[in-house]
Every structure is written in structure tokens, then in C-alpha cells.
Amino acid sequence: xxxxxxxxxxxxxxGVVYVAAALxxxxxxxxxxxxxxxxxxxxxxxxxxxxxxxxxxxxxxPGVGAPPMLEEPWGREPAPLGAAGALAYALLGExxxxxxxxxxxxxxxxxxxxxxAGAVPHVARGSGPALDHVARRVLTVGFAAVCFQPLYNSGxxxxxxxxxxxxxxxxxxxxxxxxLCDAVLAAAMLRARTGYPYGPLLRDELRALLGIGSVxxxxxxxxxxxxxxxxxxxxxxxCVPLLLTQLSFRRYAAVRTTYRQTIAxxxxxxxxxxxxxxxxxxxxxxxxxxxxxxLGLSGPDLTVLEYAALMHDIGQLSLVDPVPDGATxxxxxxxxxxxxxxxxAVVRQTGVPAAVAVVVELQADPYREQPLPARIVRxxxxxxxxxxxxxxxxxxxxxxxxLGTGRDYQPEVVESLARVLARGGLAPSSPA
Length: 432
Description:
- This protein is mainly alpha-helical.
- Helix content is 70%, strand content 1%.
- Strands 1-2 form a two-stranded antiparallel sheet.
- Helix 11 crosses helix 17.
- The model is unreliable at 1-6, 60-75 and 425-432 (pLDDT under 50).
């Protein structure tokens, strides 16, 4: 299988990001410790703000399948309060009408020190921040500070733009560039971690900018402007509503996670009743999601695919006699369609999006009459049914799928499955 040499190149991307963040952090901390902290009151106030934001962070929201799914849009920035505080400090040019004197390296030093301090309680509970998030935070905040601090401290911004509308436009453009920088870094690192196509990953990151990303950027800019006029008293004024907003997001995320867990539990009904093999639904959901990513699906389409893959066998609960080993792939086409239609009828009663039921209903149709999620579910389900308990069975299953590409299985989906399996090895299916 191909992609044998791509892993080291993709890992190199993560290494480069880590090295760049480590170098910037090292230089910032060394310079700040050697020369001392300029305007320690400002540094302490913003540092405390970031610490509070990091303590109030939430963890990533994984999907119900494995390999790990990407985070929901609200979970892409797990500490929005801390991120907004860091960005505000990078864009701080005045405090209560007096010019600030901290530079780029002190911004990096304060942000890193505060992030580490805020991570202590989480590390004690065994859930410290992901290194990818820390590296991105250092580089994006450093980027914003490099673009703003030298120009502002030299007086160049005031001479050219003043403090009116042009200055606001400059901040808006800078925030946009900073957000794009973070999105590009995030997509590149996810590409390196997962091997999924870069385009859909970047599209997901850009879509997330319209949600929590825009809130973080706008709040950081407004905080910097408010402190410039009102002084450090503006920080606690912003802290309370932002904390409440973050807690609301956290509750919403918990509801969504519970919803996904409920669907996963419903999907296990066929296993508990003895209709399908243990772990079959979770394996199909995990592989289907990976194949969907490989083929460029993202966002809501991936959610529909995951839910449909989890519930694809639920129609078997309507059967009087269970299918041997729960494997529907070897059944006659007419029987496969009957089970699929029964499953779709059950899914429509669960309250999930109608698109999920459509995928379940069409999973046994010829692939030219199916939407892409149904094609993926059919291929992956057949692979898991045919693979057995040996690596030879996995290879044989792939060959059988290739033989069926004339009518039953889309060739592109089968080859995408082969690439996904090659990245993780052609190990046989195993119960979750």
C-alpha cells in the first residue's frame, strides 16, 4: 500500500511548529528574566486574566468512534477566555492613556507563563492542555505582537493612521490575519496527525472562525481598546460576562456530547440483543469517519455519516431470526434492502436528522443511486463483515470489495478505505 514514506514528512510539520514555538518561548522567557518585566502591573493583570481563562478551559470533545474524531467548532479553542486575554495583551498599546513599554518577547513570556500556571490544576487531574494548542497559541500571539507592538511603540501607527477609523480597520485586518494564521497552523497539524486531506481540514478551521474564533478575536481587540481608555479595571468587567459565556458553551457542549453518547448506546442495542458482533457499530463508525475525511467530507456531512454508521444495523432488531453473526453483506440484495428500510423507519423515530435515516435506508442500493455517505457505510460495513479475525481475512475482504466495484461498491470509496487501512496497518477488526 502507498503512503509508506509520508508519515515522517507529516511528522516533520508538527516538529517544525514545536521547535518554532519552543525557540520563541525560550527567547521570550530569557529576555524577560534577564532584563526584567516592563510595567509589571500590566503584566500581572493580564497574566491573571489568562490564568483564570486557562483554569476555566474545557477539554476536547471527541466523537464516539476511534480513531479520534476532530473537535466540534466550539471545542477547537478550549480556553477562549485565555485566548482573548493573550490576544488583548499582544494588541495593548496604552493603559489608561499612558503608552505601554512591553515588547513582543515580554508578550510571549507572559502568555506562556500564565498558560502554564493555569494548566497546573488540569495537569493535577491528568488532563493537561494539548501541546498543539499551546504551540499554536505561542505562534499566533507572537505573530499578532510582532505585527502590532513595533509599529505602535515607534509611533508609526499614530503618525500614519491616527486613532480613528483607519486604526480600527488596521486592527480588523490584523485580527483577520492572526485568525488565518491559526487556522492554517491548526489544519497543517491535523493533517500531520491524521493524514486527512488538507483542504477539508482547512475548510473546517475557517468555518470555526465564524463561531468561537470570531468571538475570541473581537473580544481581544475590544479588551485592548477598553484598557487603553479605562485602564486595568476593564479586565474584571470583561471577565465576568466572558466566564458566563464560556460556561454556557460548556453546558451546550455537554448536551451535544450526551446526545452523541445516546446515539452510540442506541446503536449498541443490536449487540446487546445478540444480532451483531460486539463493537461492530463502533468500528464501522470509526472507519467510515476516517474514509469520509479521506474523501473530503467535513462538518455536518461527517456528523451525518457517523450517526448513520453507528445505526446502520438497527433494522435487524425487527427480524424474527437473527442474521448469522450479524453480517448483512453476504445476504441477498433484496434482504439487505428490507433490513435497511426497517432500519430507516426506526431511525426516523429517534429524532436524529432525516439525512441520517436516508443514508440508513439507501445503504443497500447500487452505489450509483446512493449519496456518498451511504456508499461509505456500505463499503465499510461489508469490510467489517468480511474481514474476520486475521490479517489475511482483511486482505481477502478488500479483494472481495474490489471485485464488487462494478455494481455494489464505489471504486473510489474502496480505494480510500484501503489507504486508511494502510496508514493504520491491515489489522483485522477487533471488538471495541
